[in-house]
Amino acid sequence: KAGVTQTPRYLIKTRGQQVTLSCSPISGHRSVSWYQQTPGQGLQFLFEYFSETQRNKGNFPGRFSGRQFSNSRSEMNVSTLELGDSALYLCASSLPRQASYNEQFFGPGTRLTVL
Amino acid sequence: DQQVKQNSPSLSVQEGRISILNCDYTNSMFDYFLWYKKYPAEGPTFLISISSIKDKNEDGRFTVFLNKSAKHLSLHIVPSQPGDSAVYFCAASGVSGNTPLVFGKGTRLSVIA
Lengths: 115, 113
Known about the structure:
The complex is a heterodimer of chains A (about 120) and B (about 110).
Chain A (H helix, E strand, L loop, with lengths): L4 E3 L2 E4 L5 E6 L6 E8 L3 E9 L2 E5 L6 E5 L5 E5 L8 E8 L10 E2 L3 E5 L1
Parallel strand pairs in A: 2-11
Antiparallel strand pairs in A: 1-3, 3-8, 4-5, 4-9, 5-6, 7-8, 9-10, 9-11
Chain B lengths: L3 E2 L4 E5 L4 E7 L6 E7 L6 E7 L4 E4 L2 E6 L4 E6 L8 E8 L8 E2 L3 E6 L1
Parallel strand pairs in B: 2-11
Antiparallel strand pairs in B: 1-3, 3-8, 4-5, 4-9, 6-7, 7-8, 9-10, 9-11
């Protein structure tokens, strides 16, 4: 079974530009979550999509947005890039089940550098 | 306000000895706790988890202990191997399967041969 894939793996942008990252979950997984990892900050939750609806949202500005398609693939978009947006962006997918915690499977991430 | 804290940014252990990674949390609504391991240039991979109704869960060389009254959990790796060198993240989740994971900042473990 193929794992979570993320494209592109590396990206360099300049301040003020916008960027779109893509995530393809494991086949059959319907929940996709996005995280930002910066040095010394761990993984910070951005948002989660389930059945094309945003179900949870972290504490990030509105410049960060996402969506999910009917095939469960997800994209996240960051507009008006700032230097502080340089980070590893991780996508994770899970089934999910209703009654108990769902293990999340992570992709390799997209390394975004903003110059 | 960090709800999941890993106070040791790094830990160095000799091969064959025990590695103990610690994690504290502040939110009493957390019900499920997980440890993830991350190698450079890869996404985190699930290692082991524990539900709040248990105080210990074991999987091979890995054991997680939960002390609910202290809001503390720890991951024990015995014996430690060089391949265990990675960043370990502690994460917590609420009761519902729909709540997002909250991660700590991670502890970099180095196992020295």
